[in-house]
Every structure is written in structure tokens, then in C-alpha cells.
């Protein structure tokens, strides 16, 4: 304990009211120093710790021995944040979990990973809660041991949708044991020519109410692949 006696009493010394008052006042006025810093494990006996400082990135409200800038703090009312070495890696609210650090199922080499990359091993996956309120082995996104990226949808009648600005523009779907690319709607004009060695495939109206499947090349040339009968 940091609190020290004001008087070290000796045998036969006169106990005066001044010395007693000073000793007790020393305790009353510096009560925190009786337990700070702790010299052993503190058992709160099932009670709560309340009114903890919100802290900051560099000085979290709860930090760890030997790492004062690593721990928990609150960046805003209703949120809990995790800081490691003075950097925010996660924010938790009642609706959002925002992770900014690496997520690994086991120890892996993260060469090439950026500061805010999320890392999964090739046996890990991003999975979604389905309509039944459960997860499924065939509903999510994952990598495999051959370095492929896999997208799984639960049933053969489901699709992998593409939305831009909230608008559904197309999807991949399975029918008759095969896969098809479906364009939803048509482009209002030809797409811009891609860069060198590129090509873009799209649909547009031929001006007479028929849908064209079109390919445009880097030169600007447009080739109609098929015309609606």
C-alpha cells in the first residue's frame, strides 16, 4: 500500500489528540491509497464495477499490465470499443459489429495483409443466418485448400444476386443442373469501351423493342452476340 504512517509510535510515547487526529485524517483523506495499487487479487464478490471512465484509443478505460494503450473503451454512448496498441480494431453497438482487425481461426502467416483486413483461414467462412433462423454449410462465402473462393446458396432455386445502388441488375442462377447469368433490364446505351485487352458484355434495346446481347471491345467496336427473336 502507498499510504504510510505519520507517526511511528515507540514504547512510552504520549498519545496526543493532535497525533491521533492527524493519523485518522491521513486515512480518511487518502482512502484510495489503502488499496491502490493492489498487491493481490481483488474479489468483488459478485458485485458490479460501475462508472468506469470511457477512456480513449490511447488510454482506454480498462487496460492491461504493461500495455496501457490496449484494452476497452467507449467511443460513444452505447458502444464498446477494443483498442490494441492504440488502434481501434472493433466497435460493438446494439446493432452493429464493426471489426477492423484480423480474424483468424488459428495461427496463420498474414504476409501481405493490410492494417484493416479481415483474415480467415481457408477452413473458415462468412456465414449468414437463413430464413429458418439457423446457419448452413452451404450458405456463405469461404476459401478452400486450392485457393478458390466459393459462394454457396442454400438451394438450387436460389441465386447469387448483383445490386448496384440498391437496384437488382442481374444474378447467377442454377437450372437443369447448369448455371445461367441473367440480366435484369437493359442498358439505356452502349457501355463505355473497356481498357486495352478488355471486353464488356451487356444487354440493351435495339430501338425496336427487342433485347440485344452485346459485346463491346477496347477499340470501341460493338458486336451483337444475339438478338431477341
Layout of helices and strands:
Layout (H helix, E strand, L loop, with lengths): L16 H13 L32 E3 L2 E7 L6 E5 L2 E6 L4 E3 L25 E3 L12 E4 L5 E4 L6 E6 L2 E9 L2 E6 L15 E7 L5 E7 L4 E6 L2
Antiparallel strand pairs: 1-2, 2-3, 3-4, 4-5, 6-7, 7-8, 9-10, 10-11, 12-13, 13-14
Q: Please report the total strand number as a whole number.
A: 14
Instruction: Return Rg in Å.
Output: 33 Å
User: What share of residues is helical?
Assistant: under 10%
By oligomeric state, this entry counts as: single chain
Largest sheet entry: 5 strands, antiparallel
- Globally, the shape reads rod-shaped
N-to-C SSE string, H for helix and E for strand? HEEEEEEEEEEEEEE
State the main characteristics.
mainly beta; five-stranded antiparallel β-sheet; single chain; 229 residues
Describe the overall structure:
- The protein is mainly beta.
- The chain has a domain at 1-42.
- It has one helix and 14 strands; from the N terminus they run H-E-E-E-E-E-E-E-E-E-E-E-E-E-E.
- 3% of the residues are buried.
Summarize the structure in short.
The chain has one helix spanning 17-29; strands at 62-64, 67-73, 80-84, 87-92, 97-99, 125-127, 140-143, 149-152, 159-164, 167-175, 178-183, 199-205, 211-217, 222-227.
Amino acid at each position: 500500500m502507498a499510504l504510510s504512517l505519520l507517526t511511528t509510535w515507540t514504547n512510552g510515547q504520549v498519545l496526543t489528540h493532535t497525533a491521533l487526529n492527524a493519523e485518522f485524517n491521513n486515512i480518511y483523506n487518502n482512502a484510495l491509497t489503502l488499496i491502490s495499487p493492489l498487491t493481490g487479487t481483488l474479489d468483488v464478490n459478485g458485485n458490479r464495477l460501475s462508472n468506469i471512465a470511457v477512456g480513449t484509443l490511447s488510454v482506454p478505460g480498462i487496460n492491461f499490465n504493461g500495455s496501457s494503450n490496449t484494452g476497452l473503451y467507449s467511443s460513444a454512448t452505447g458502444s464498446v470499443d477494443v483498442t490494441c496498441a492504440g488502434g481501434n480494431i472493433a466497435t460493438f453497438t446494439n446493432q452493429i459489429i464493426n471489426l477492423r482487425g484480423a480474424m483468424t481461426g488459428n495461427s496463420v502467416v498474414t504476409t501481405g495483409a493490410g492494417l484493416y483486413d479481415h483474415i480467415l483461414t481457408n477452413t473458415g467462412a462468412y456465414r449468414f443466418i437463413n430464413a429458418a433462423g439457423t446457419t448452413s454449410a452451404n450458405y456463405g462465402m469461404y476459401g478452400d485448400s486450392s485457393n478458390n473462393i466459393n459462394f454457396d446458396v442454400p438451394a438450387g432455386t436460389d441465386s447469387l444476386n448483383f445490386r448496384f445502388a440498391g437496384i437488382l441488375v442481374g444474378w447467377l442462377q442454377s437450372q437443369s443442373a447448369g448455371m445461367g447469368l441473367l440480366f435484369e433490364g437493359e442498358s439505356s446505351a452502349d457501355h463505355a469501351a473497356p481498357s486495352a485487352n478488355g471486353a464488356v458484355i451487356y444487354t440493351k434495346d435495339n430501338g425496336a423493342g427487342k433485347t440485344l446481347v452485346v459485346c463491346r471491345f477496347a477499340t470501341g467496336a460493338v458486336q451483337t452476340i444475339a438478338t431477341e427473336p
